[in-house]
Amino acid sequence: MQGKDFDIRISHTHRIRFTRDTFAIDSRLLIDLLETNGHAKLLVFIDSGVADEFPDLKTRIGAYLDRMPGFHSKGVIIQTGGESCKRNANTLQAAWDAIEEAGIDRHSYILCIGGGAYLDAIGFAAATAHRGIRFVRFPTTCLSQDDSGVGVKNGINAYGKKNFLGTFAVPYAVVNDFTFLHGQPETERRAGLVEAVKVALVKDAAFFHWIEDNAEGLSKLRTHTLEEAVERSALLHASHIAYGGDAFETGNSRPLDFGHWAAHKMEQLTDFALSHADAVGVGVALDTVYSWKTGRLDEASAMRILKVLKILKLEIWHPALEHKTAHGKRAVFLGLEEFREHLGGELTVLLLKEIGKGEDVHTMDTNLLEECINWLESSHASTPIVN
Question: Is residue 387 part of a domain?
Answer without folding.
Answer: no
